[in-house]
Write a structure and sequence with these properties.
It is a single chain. The chain is an alpha/beta fold and 427 residues long. It folds into two domains: 3-31 and 284-407, Lyase, Ornithine Decarboxylase, Chain A, domain 1 (Beta Barrel); 34-282, TIM Barrel. Helix 2 (34-47) packs across helix 3 (64-73) and helix 5 packs across helix 6 (126-139). Helix 4 (82-90) links the parallel strand 3 and strand 4 (98-100). The chain is built from twelve helices and 19 strands.
Length: 427
């Protein structure tokens, strides 16, 4: 079935249980439940030391309804592009509550963000500091820089480490220590984000221990009164698998104790302590519904072709930039057991593989599979432009009732060649 064969209206109650409920919905579709966003936010805030500020990282999912709900709950926004800036502003995030990060920024993006009301920028080098200074001079707007630090200490755990090896993310701590005069001018805080998607509380505590120790040392090296200490996040969450958010009962006290020892004035807001999270806040709110288009056999292996592949889910995994995902598929309630299946999308590429030897039973074309915990790093982290298939609907619900239905679209603009060339630097 296609989206045009169905109608969704605000207030409609969705039934995501059983094939009868699923086949009555347009597919492919992402369904985001705001109740789950509120529950995740409450759980994370309870696990953080107080006082502290929580930023939502839009890279996890920039859907305006999710960003707006998190802003309403008190989250600030961490962005890394002009597009994410537009998404945050569209979702009514106050500009002064936005942090613009990322290892490379164009001059005009920094100026545009400043003129839109953004005041805080995370930078990775002396050039980044100078870029923010020049933007402040060009706009006559006071701007603040967080210096992102790349710690040399490698971290253990099952997450995605951002410390220890060469990286574009941050300035090496040794570089800062050896050349403090290159970094002092214009710094208003430090930014240490050492890893991502740690599901074990002990691993999270260890990364914050390293971050806080590095911050304390660099406070002494730079000799500056810093306004903000951004400790990043790394809070893990299930992805495309059944599961619940990890609990962190000891995290708040452990991090508070570390801060008390290293920077005791933090309890008075000097500096303001900041945390960031993307996947923990929105992962469990999302469900991807995808129809079976074809079922066949190849060299004795059942092959299930879905209408969603790496263009809709896990595109970065499909490119093998990050470990392969192993999605959980919840299909027809009554199904015969069958051998493990190769589950693919509809793309003309052998990389378009969502799972191997998946336990999906014996499926038929027209069946709908439900892939849970896909609210983070789903659609916008995928190869949305490859082969130009229509994008899934994105259906936002609250208590199971439809709040909004939208579809992401890619468009091509025709530009005036004279204007385009005037904006290009020709050497």
């Amino acid at each position: 079935m296609t989206a045009s064969e169905h109608a969704l209206h605000p207030g409609q109650q969705l039934d995501l249980t059983g094939q009868s409920g699923l086949t009555a919905l347009p597919t492919p579709a992402y369904v985001y439940e705001l109740e789950a966003v509120r529950a995740a936010h409450e759980q994370l805030v309870a696990a953080l030391p107080h006082p502290s500020t929580l930023f939502y990282s839009l890279k996890a999912n920039p859907h305006p309804a999710l960003v707006r709900e998190l802003a309403r709950l008190g989250c600030s926004a961490e962005i890394s592009s002009r597009g994410e800036l537009h998404a945050a502003l569209q979702a009514d995030v106050a500009p002064h509550r936005i942090l613009y990060s990322g290892p490379g920024k164009r001059d005009d993006d920094v100026v545009a963000a400043a003129r839109a009301g953004v005041r805080w920028f995370s930078v990775d080098s002396p050039r980044g500091l100078d870029q923010v200074r020049r933007a402040a001079e060009a706009t006559s707007i006071p701007l603040h820089s967080l210096l992102r630090v790349h710690a040399a200490t490698p971290l253990a755990g099952r997450g995605l480490a951002m410390a220890g090896g060469p990286t574009s993310l941050g300035a090496d701590a040794e570089w800062i220590e050896g050349n403090p005069d290159c970094f002092r001018d214009g710094i208003h805080g430090l930014h240490l984000f050492l890893g991502s998607n740690f599901t074990a509380e002990a691993d999270l505590i260890r990364q914050f221990e390293v971050a806080i120790a590095s911050a304390r040392h660099l406070y002494d090296v730079l000799g500056l009164p810093l306004e903000r200490l951004d400790l990043g996040g790394g809070f893990g969450a299930p992805f495309a698998q059944e599961g619940t958010l990890p609990s962190m009962p000891n995290l708040a006290k452990a991090v508070a104790d570390l801060l008390d020892d290293a920077i005791p004035t933090w309890r008075d807001g000097r500096p303001e302590v900041v945390f960031e999270s993307g996947r923990y806040l929105v992962s469990t709110c999302g469900t991807l519904l995808s129809q079976v288009l074809d079922v066949k056999e190849s060299q004795g292996t059942p092959v299930v072709v879905l209408e969603s592949g790496i263009n809709h889910l896990g595109g970065m995994s499909g490119l093998r930039r990050i470990p392969w995902i192993v999605p959980h598929f919840d299909g027809p309630a009554e199904r015969e057991p069958g051998p493990g299946s190769l589950v693919t999308g509809p793309l003309c590429s052998p990389l378009d593989c969502l799972a191997r030897e998946a336990d999906v039973g014996r499926l038929r074309p027209g069946d709908i599979l439900r892939i849970p915990n896909t609210g983070a790093y789903g659609l916008t982290a995928s190869l949305v432009g490859f082969l130009s298939h229509p994008q899934p609907l994105e259906i936002v619900t609250d208590g199971g009732r439809v709040v909004s239905t939208t579809r992401l679209a890619m468009t091509r603009e025709t530009l005036d060649p004279a204007v385009t060339l005037a904006n290009m630097e020709v050497t």
